[in-house]
Target: Enoyl-CoA hydratase-related protein
Amino acid sequence: MPEAILFEVRNHIAYVTLNRPEVLNCFNYPTLKRLGQVVEEIHHDQGIRVVIFTGAGEKAFSAGADLKERRTLPEADVKRNVRKIRDVFSSIEALPQPTIAAINGHAFGGGFELALACDLRVSVDSASMGLTELSWAIIPGAGGTQRLPRLIGQAKAMELILTAKKLRADEAWEYGILNKTVSREALIPVCEEYAAAILKNGPIAVQQAKYSIKHGMETDLQTGLAIEAKAYEVTIPTKDRVEALEAFSEKRAPVFKGE
Model:
């Protein structure tokens, strides 16, 4: 039986692939458990500097919860699954490394919520996506009601969630959900271009910038500025900062080591 989650690291980039294409890469409980383990491993691996999440096959990034499994579960296990997917996606959002959702196909419900938990989102232009839970008489339970309005504003999020609207990729870009839409052939190369641009920068500075943005957005401006100041202070004693100054004076590209 193939692994539900594929995980590999190349050139400081972690590739995490949802590998259940026969069921549109939907999430059952074992898949969520394994994804959580992979995310935990990534969190503590200093050699990983960028993470790309994608799905196997061409049909779906992820169709969300495994409804075939869900039909067989008692209410207590449904609550367990919802709690697990929420916690796993929160751990993805909390990763110190920048994350990129390479949306290779349709992304609905929990699949779309996984993309929302990432920092950047690139989609194939043939994909459609949305928070369709209300059409199943439930609500988004893995962060969708919280992350979508923070990303695009309350009124637009209300529209999309309450109508359970399915968006084409170009529409999702117009709403400000996607960073870019691309052809299928260009999906991973474009995500790797984003990763390469990030990897050119000081690794500690990258993580502190992400931390400052993520935590500052949830506060008032003055508290956010204090968070930024503390994040800046972390970079001051690093060898990478000194290397950047030396490289500038020597008119060469800096060589950052994350130290």
About this structure: The CA atoms of residues 246 and 252 lie 9 Å apart. The mean pLDDT is 94.
